[in-house]
Specification:
With 657 residues, the protein is an alpha+beta fold. It folds into 5 domains: 106 residues, no CATH class; 126 residues, no CATH class; 73 residues, Phosphorylase Kinase, domain 1 (2-Layer Sandwich), CATH 3.30.200; 209 residues, Orthogonal Bundle (Transferase(Phosphotransferase), domain 1); 77 residues, Recoverin, domain 1 (Orthogonal Bundle). The strands form 5 sheets. A 5-stranded mixed beta sheet has the order 1-2-3-5-4. The longest helix has 20 residues. Pfam families: EF-hand_7, Pkinase.
């Protein structure tokens, strides 16, 4: 370690030592450690200046074979334990509650010897393997007292390694070491698609933040490594040619690192960017430009033998967006018939996402051409959208841009949610420029309206795509968003489906004479003041559909239902679609595994496997070994009256039998 690096390290240690002695600010994190305990669980312990200790224990089966949820949990904990940030017992408790929602099971916090402790049990979710370059195994290793290594292997047997020199005593992390491990786990997370050029080009991004990066590559052995010495001191040596050449190849869509050895081809010139002039993304061919806006272009293309849609983001210059967690979640999300399938994404030369191509019409255009839907037709469409949105939320993804232009209608009438909020995710770093919390409400509304009008002025309809008709009030008021933001938009979409109209616009006097900015400003003011579309326009539909809309677009996001609850409401009034949903083989009968899935869905963790079997036998009144629809219908009527858990106590009485 050179003198400049040692001096920078000593300065950080001196700073936090002084904080500890001064005990001010008292809630500042001054030290943290990350290590494997005797049970091979990962333990992150950190201490604030007032002497309070906090510990997250991530329960894992094997540190050499981490699931993607375990990788994600480690990353989350590392972000919470950064030196210099604040922590209090109340904040720790709030964070534990948030992690519990995300990972399903978190025990604590408990206090042991004045130390706050929480246990995280990441669900070992399986991910679809859609590419030979998918990472199938990721391990975390402590090689000696000062080095931690993240090592991954892909389906095609390529090995990728990131080695981090901790510099301090065993397991202690400077702020940059903390960042290094976070970035390493994001790059090498199980389920990600990774190939040599992408891995080595990301070494340039690591170098921008961590400064001392030494690459190593051997294409014959399919081995690629980045050794990191995290420091604030810029490296005096030039950028390694291996990283530069790989970045050029990645940006131009050519293949470089997979046939390159640092020692054997040191004089080889960089690949020409002329080699893939039409489409800069490896393995993708453009067929035609489908649409274009100020933010993005969408192309129809080919990936192998399959038609795909490629969305290229034009106004996103922040290359760190590769590390956005939401992007990676999309690749790990299991397939769902009402959600567009994501193949892969690219960080260079412009961020782009490659998705399934849906041959159909977006819902905005369909409603414009055909008008409102009937009660029965609309219910099927609404339930499909609700199912897809619930699947996204269950997978940890918030759309944030749900609207009728982002819902495609297939030729069979089924809906598919597209876009997946990628514009919002890719530009999250720019959110502060959209809503400045120091501005007054009127100033924020004016700025949002102006930005919306400028962004979408080139769209083919003045008041359709890209307007703020679906935005939730909390996003206007304080730039806050959650899964309930999507629920609000879903309620507006329900109204559109049954009314055949765009919301709010018919209530604006002389709308045709107003500018786009004036329309947007009027709509935003109405939304924050609690104005919602008129139920008089959907008077013919069932009352429970109207009440569901009202629940979904409630001004207070805390009062809105979850999408799981919405799906329950939409299915609960008709047992047939509920039965069909869990009849996975379309046999017309529910076998025990299918019935058990239903029970786990409606009372997760509350019914033991033994009780599930007892319930199954009770509902199967003719003892045929499976449940037909009439038996399920009778059972569901009881559940509606008494509740699922209460049914257990009465199922053996003559009242049911």
């Amino acid at each position: 370690m050179d003198e400049n690096v040692r001096r920078a390290l000593d300065e950080e240690e001196t700073h936090f030592t002084a904080l500890k002695k001064a005990k001010s600010p008292s809630h500042c994190i001054i030290d943290n450690t990350l290590k494997l305990n005797n049970q091979n669980d990962l333990q992150c312990r950190f201490e604030t200046a007032d002497g309070t200790a906090y510990t997250f224990r991530i329960i894992i089966d094997d540190p050499a074979d981490l699931s993607w949820t375990a990788c994600r949990a480690i990353c989350d904990v590392m972000q919470l334990a950064v030196r210099g940030t604040s922590m209090t017992r109340q904040l720790f408790q709030d964070l534990v509650a948030q992690l519990s929602v995300k990972y399903g099971k978190v025990d604590g916090p408990t206090i042991v010897n004045d130390e706050c402790i929480a246990l995280i049990f990441p669900n070992p979710s399986k991910t679809p393997i859609r590419d030979p370059n998918t990472i199938v195994r990721t391990g975390l290793y402590y090689n000696d007292s000062s080095t931690v290594t993240v090592k991954s292997k892909t389906k095609c047997q390529a090995t990728y390694v990131i080695e981090i020199n901790l510099q301090l005593d065993a397991f202690r992390y400077t702020k940059l070491c903390n960042k290094a491990l976070f970035m390493a786990l994001n790059i090498l997370e199980t389920g990600d698609v990774l190939y040599p050029d992408r891995f080595l080009s990301l070494g340039l991004i690591l170098r921008q933040h961590l400064h001392r990066i030494t690459p190593e590559a051997s294409s014959s052995n399919k081995f690629y490594k980045l050794a990191i010495l995290p420091t604030t001191v810029h490296s005096p040596v030039p950028i390694p040619s291996l990283l530069l050449r790989a970045a050029i190849a990645e940006a131009s869509g050519t293949e470089y690192a997979s046939s390159y050895s640092e020692t054997a081809n040191a004089s080889q010139p960089p690949p020409s960017q002329e080699s893939s002039l039409h489409c800069p993304y490896a393995g993708i061919t453009y067929l035609e430009l489908l649409k274009e806006s100020g933010q993005a272009r969408v192309y129809l293309g080919m990936k192998g033998d399959e038609k795909v849609a490629i969305k290229v983001y034009l106004d996103c210059e922040e290359q760190d967006d590769f590390f956005k967690n939401e992007l990676k979640l999309l690749l790990k999300m299991s397939d769902h018939p009402n959600v567009v399938r994501v193949h892969t994404f690219f960080a260079l030369p412009k961020p782009a996402i490659v998705m399934e191509y849906i041959d159909g019409q977006d819902l905005l255009d369909y409603l414009s051409d055909h008008g409102s839907m009937s009660n029965n037709e609309g219910k099927k469409l609404v339930l499909g959208i609700a199912d897809g949105l619930y699947h996204l939320h269950k997978s940890g993804i918030i759309h944030r841009d749900l609207k009728t232009p982002n819902i495609m209608r297939r030729s069979d009438g089924s809906p598919v949610i597209i876009d997946l909020g990628m514009s919002a995710m890719l530009n999250r770093s720019q959110d502060a420029s959209v809503v400045d919390l120091t501005q007054t409400q009127a100033e924020r509304i004016a700025r949002l309206a102006r930005r919306a009008a400028e962004t979408y002025s080139s769209n083919r309809t003045r008041t359709g795509k890209g307007s703020l008709l679906w935005i939730a009030p909390e996003m206007v008021l304080n730039n806050d968003w959650s899964d309930r933001t999507d629920v609000h938009a879903f309620g507006i979409i329900m109204w559109e489906i049954f009314s055949g109209k765009l919301p709010f616009l018919s209530d604006i006097p002389h709308a045709a004479q107003l500018s786009q900015e004036e329309i947007e400003s009027t709509v935003l003011n109405a939304i924050v003041q609690g104005v919602r579309p008129s139920l008089a326009d959907v008077s013919e539909i069932d009352d429970y559909l109207k009440s569901t809309m009202q629940l979904c677009w409630h001004s207070d996001p805390r009062e809105r239902p979850t999408m799981m609850r919405v799906v329950d409401i939409l299915r609960g009034n008709d047992p047939q679609p509920l039965f069909n949903h869990f009849d996975s083989d379309n046999s017309g009968f529910l076998e025990f595994p299918e019935f058990a899935m239903f029970l786990e869905r409606y009372a997760p963790g509350d019914i033991s496997p033994d009780d599930m079997l007892v319930l199954f036998k009770a509902v199967d009144t003719n003892q045929s070994g499976s449940i037909c629809f009439s038996e399920f219908e009778k059972f569901w009527a009881f559940v509606q009256s008494y509740g699922l858990l209460n049914f257990i106590s009465i199922m053996s009485t003559s009242t049911y039998v």
